[in-house]
Structures are given as C-alpha cells and as structure tokens.
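Whiteboard transcription, Tuesday session. T.W. wrote the structure tokens on the left side:
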C-alpha cells in the first residue's frame, strides 16, 4: 500500500511538472496572464506531491516498513530512530527523493514570492524550474524507484552505510549540501528567463542575485560541515583531501562566488550582463556534474554512492542542460546590452574583473584535476589518479592571490584612481600585512606560503575592518549618535548588503589563515601502548588507562580511555575507539578531539585490544582548526545579513504597486 501510494505521488509530480513546463513556456511566449496563473498552480502541485512522497518515505523508514524497496535496502530494526530518519539521504534512491523535496520547496517559494512581480520573466523561469523538476520526477519514476515493492517482505534490513551512522553531523551535512546544490536551479531559471526575454533589467538583477546568494550560503556551510565530518570521523586528522566528490561541491561554489561579484558590477556599472548569466548557468551545470560524480559510481570515494543506471541518466540530463545553456547563450547573449563600462587601470572595477578571472582559473584547475583521470581511462583504458600535490601546487597560488584581491579591490575607489589615491589606499594595509607576517615569523612560522598567506590576510583584514568602521564613524560624527544606534543605522538598516559582504570577507580571511596554519604547522606521533604506558606529544602527556568493549543496539564499540595532561595539569580523558557494524567487515575508527582556542589534540585509534589491553594510537596537534568552523559560520552570517530585506524601502513613496497582470494584452 505504501509503495503504491508513493509511486502514485511520483507520477503526479512528473505529470504536473511536465505540464507546468509546457504551459510556462507558452505563457511566457504569449504574455498570457492566465497561462502564468496556471503555471503557478502546477508549481505548487509539484511541490505538494514531492513533499507528500517524502513524508510517506520518512514514515516508512521510521515504521520499518520493509515492503518498500528503499526501506528494505537501508532500514534496520536495530538502528536508532534518528539513523532511520537520516537514512532518507544515506543511499542513492533516497537521496534523489530528498532532492525532489528540496527542488519542490524552492520552486514553490520562489514562485510564490514572485507571483505578482516580473511578469515578463517569471513564466519562463518557472517553466525552466519545472522542467528540471520533471527530470528528477522521471528519475524517481524510472531508474531510481525508491517506492518499489518487495515480496516476500523481509523481517529486517541491513541498515544504512556504517560511515553515515558514525557521527551526528550526517544529520545536517547532506541537507545543507542539497539546499546549496538544488538551490542553484532557481538562479539558473532566472538567467534563462533573462536570455529568453533578451533583457536583464536592474529590477530583475536583484532577485537573481538574492536567489544565487541563498544557496551559496547553504553550500558554504555544507562544504565546511563535510570537512568537519571527515575530520571527526575518518581518523586521518585532516579535513580536505581534494577528493573528487569534495571537489564536486567546491566547483559550483567557485563559480557562484564569481557570479555574485560579477552581479555587483552589473548592478553598479550596467556591464558584464552576459558574463554574469554565463557564470550563473555554469554554476548550475557544475551542480549537475557534481550530482553525476556522486551518483554514477565512476569515482571511488567514501562520499560517493554505488554504480547504477541513475548515473547515465543524469549524464544525459547534463548534456541536455549544456545544450540548452550554450544554445541560449549563443542566440541571445548579444541582446543583453551593456548600459555602462568598466574603468581600466587601478580601480575597484578592474580588481573585480581580475577577481572573476581568478575564480574561473581556479575552477578550471580543480575541474581538470578531477576529471582528467576519467578522460584518460575512457580514451586509453588506463587507470590513473591526480593527487593532492597537483591541487596544492596549482590551487594555492590562485587562492592566495584571491585573498590579496579581497583587500586590494575594496581599498581602491570605483573608477580610475590616481597614483596618490592608490598610495593612500594601500600603504596602511601593506604595513598591517607586514606586521602580521613578522609576528608569525617570530612565533615560529617558516613555511614560505604560510607567511605569504598570513601577510595577505593581515592586508585584507585591515581593509575589511576599515571599510566596516568608516561608515559607522561617519554616522556617529554626522548625526551625533551613540555606537549602538549608529551601528544599527549604518550597518544593518541602510548598509546591510555592504556589511554582509565585508562580514563574508572577514570570515574568508579567518578561513585562509586557519587553513594555512593548520595544514603546515601540525605535529604528530604514532605509538603502540600497553595499559599504564605514557607517550609525549609536544607539551601533552598521553597515558593509556584501559580498553573496553561497549555493546550498543546497532554496533559494538572498542573504546580506549586515554588520560591527557599538559604541564602537569589534568585535562581529562579522551576516548578514541573502533566501531564494528554487523554488515561491515572492517571496523571504523572514531577519533576523539580536544578542541581549544588555538589548537586541537586529535587522538585516533589504529587498533584497540580489550583482552590484551593494548592500543595503537595516532596522536596529532592541529593548530587553528576550530577557526575554520568559526569562519564558515561568519561567512554564512554575512550572506544572511546581505539577504535582509531593506525595510526602509517599504516607506518610500517611489515603491510601485504589485503588478497583477502580464504586460501584454493577450489573456488566452
């Protein structure tokens, strides 16, 4: 019964999304208000069908209804309810179903918020969204089929991938990733609408930028949560390995970041309209490429799913989306005429442009390193891999250059600057960067790239703080306001977008600095200890107290108790261990981390023997890692601040009433 109801809901979603896409394109071409109303109805129906299908699957997972094929595949009576629930996105078919829920929610909200706005664009945009929804509905109805029937019904199931049961971060990481990935469908539809109508007006650029910024925030958080999960679960002590599936989420983040900067230039200067929509469409294509990479089985990664017919189907969709994008750009990009021009030479305009080019270079660098082994294998039938040395050698210089540009661009004025203006703008930040590098050197930093990164970080941090402080101080001086009132007026009510951008920059500076220090300044040891023995790592003393076996409903844990002291001061006990799952041959390590403001003590068990009371221990001191997680939160906060509606506009007499009809007289 549940399986049949689920299949029915998926077919309804496929039907209404397909019909809505057709009606939406027709309504856009004819300027039909009635067609636009009908398209909106189809969008809401699609969202409702996808939501109902997901609720049905969640109920089946919680009730352990093994008559549903997906539940039989990933469910288990022994796992806790929270594991049963997150099983929805733990395997291939369920992740596609969850994808459908997210795209349905995005389409419904974006359609509703713009139901009386931008009638020239919105039928086209909604049609593109529903066409994407139709593809994922087809995927669920055909190759994926999470609501298949199972007979005879098994008494129990194997449970989800043990790695995904090993940490609570798997509750939040995949949803944030999907909210970032799937959300890129919305700006893709808006960019397609701009090309189809042949114009990108200032009034339409704002929703395009905002709907790009929102999934960018989610994707930023998702990437860092993924690194945090790897750090806390995989036991190797790092958070980023240039894994192909890690790169799959990083690629659209790079182009989306470039598109956000390009949209700012378009809004301010009326230039680069075609470039902006190109970056937006490239971002969407890279999310589909990332979806293929994680769901095709062509990459051997801890993050990826197994090989299935879903991968080739997604590849076909990628080809169709690429054909649509290239064709639309080739035929219509010349209609997006520029209304202004960029200044050359030393100016904020040119620095923004160089920033964009570096982001694109970064994207190509990562894309080539990620896909080149596949191309070689397809052409020559030779397996090869591109490892971390390539990515570090190619990506580090580009990334550090971007860090510098984050400071140089905002320091310069819009329009061509004189030599004196450049000197005044850059002299103090250069001094700040050199001071930071000197302090780092005095504290023992000797790696050249780390020193360069910290120098550029000091430069950019000075500019960022100055740009945040100047409007505040001017407001206090001009209006005689106190700090709190001036802060509210200058940074939130009036300058929220500018403030948000600089808060993001501040988070990025922290992230660059923490990554540079943590990846080059750590220390580690590997030791084999018997009960009561002590190992030293830096200022820490690690004493192996005992090993014990802990039985849980869904796993058996081998846990080591390690007492930690520093300078004779007791810091408590850490408990690294190994978890053994019933359907997993090899145990999975579970590190334990003591986090402080400036460094982590990271203990990972290589082997644990409760009978012989021995422990193989990998111990590391990782400096500044906690600042990476904090930096992501700061960047997300900045993005959300930039999205805050400008409340003052609601009181402006220039605000136009909502448009309720299409601009063309045809109503059929």
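and on the right, the sequence the group agreed on:
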């Amino acid at each position: 019964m549940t399986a049949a109801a689920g299949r029915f809901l998926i077919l309804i979603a496929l039907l209404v999304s397909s019909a809505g896409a057709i009606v939406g394109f027709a309504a856009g071409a004819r300027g039909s208000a009635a067609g636009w109303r009908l398209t909106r109805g189809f969008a809401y129906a699609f969202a409702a069908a996808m939501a109902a299908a997901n609720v049905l699957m969640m109920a089946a997972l919680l009730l352990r209804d093994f008559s549903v094929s997906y539940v039989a595949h990933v469910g288990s009576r022994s796992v806790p309810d929270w594991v049963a629930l997150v099983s929805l996105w733990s395997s291939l078919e369920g992740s596609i179903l969850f994808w459908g829920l997210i795209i349905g929610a995005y389409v419904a909200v974006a359609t509703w918020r713009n139901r009386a706005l931008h009638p020239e664009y919105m039928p086209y945009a909604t049609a593109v969204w529903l066409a994407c929804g139709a593809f994922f509905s087809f995927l669920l109805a055909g190759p994926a089929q999470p609501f298949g029937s199972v007979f005879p019904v098994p008494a129990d199931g194997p449970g989800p991938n043990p790695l995904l049961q090993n940490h609570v971060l798997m509750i939040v990481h995949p949803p944030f990733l999907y909210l970032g990935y799937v959300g890129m469908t919305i700006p893709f539809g808006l960019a397609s609408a701009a090309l189809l109508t042949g114009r990108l007006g200032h009034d339409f650029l704002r929703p395009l930028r905002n709907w790009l910024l929102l999934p960018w925030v989610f994707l930023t958080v998702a990437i860092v949560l993924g690194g945090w999960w790897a750090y806390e679960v995989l036991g190797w002590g790092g958070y980023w390995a240039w894994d192909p599936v890690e790169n799959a989420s990083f690629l659209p983040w790079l182009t989306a970041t470039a598109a956000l900067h390009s949209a700012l230039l378009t809004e301010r200067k009326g230039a680069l309209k075609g470039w902006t929509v190109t970056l937006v469409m490239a971002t969407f294509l890279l999310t589909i490429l990332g979806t293929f990479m994680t769901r095709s089985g062509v990459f051997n990664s801890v993050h990826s799913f197994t090989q299935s017919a879903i991968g080739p189907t997604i590849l076909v969709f990628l080809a169709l989306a690429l054909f649509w994008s290239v064709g639309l750009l080739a035929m219509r990009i010349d209609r997006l005429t520029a209304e202004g021009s960029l200044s050359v030479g030393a100016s904020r305009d040119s620095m923004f442009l160089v920033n964009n080019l570096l982001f694109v270079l970064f994207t190509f660098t990562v894309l080539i390193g990620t896909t080149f082994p596949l191309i070689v294998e397809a052409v020559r039938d030779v397996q090869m891999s591109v490892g971390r040395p390539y990515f570090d050698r190619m990506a580090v210089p580009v990334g550090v250059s971007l860090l510098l540009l984050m400071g140089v661009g905002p320091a310069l004025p819009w329009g061509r600057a004189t030599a004196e203006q450049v000197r005044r703008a850059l002299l103090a930040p250069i001094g700040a960067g050199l001071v930071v590098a000197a302090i780092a050197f005095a504290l023992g930093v000797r790696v050249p790239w780390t020193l360069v990164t910290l120098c550029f970080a000091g430069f950019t941090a000075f500019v960022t703080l100055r740009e945040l402080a100047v409007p505040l101080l001017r407001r206090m001086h001009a209006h005689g306001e106190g700090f709190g009132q001036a802060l509210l007026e200058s940074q939130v009510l009036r300058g929220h977008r500018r403030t948000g951008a600089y808060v993001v920059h501040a988070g990025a500076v922290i992230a660059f600095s923490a990554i540079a220090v943590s990846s080059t300044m750590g220390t580690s040891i590997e030791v084999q200890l018997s009960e009561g023995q002590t190992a030293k790592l830096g200022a820490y003393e690690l004493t192996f107290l005992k090993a014990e076996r802990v039985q849980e409903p869904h796993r058996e844990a081998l846990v080591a108790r390690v007492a930690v002291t520093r300078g004779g001061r007791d810091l408590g006990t850490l408990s690294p261990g190994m978890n053994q799952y019933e359907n997993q041959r090899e145990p999975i390590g579970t590190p334990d981390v003591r986090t402080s403001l400036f460094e982590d003590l990271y203990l990972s068990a290589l082997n644990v023997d409760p009978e012989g009371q021995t422990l193989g221990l990998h111990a590391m001191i990782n400096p500044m890692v906690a600042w990476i997680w904090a930096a992501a939160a700061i960047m997300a906060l900045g993005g959300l601040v930039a999205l805050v509606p400008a409340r003052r506009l609601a009181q402006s007499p220039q605000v136009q009433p909502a448009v309720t009809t299409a601009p063309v007289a045809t109503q059929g």
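Someone added at the bottom: DSSP finds 20 helices and ten strands in the chain.
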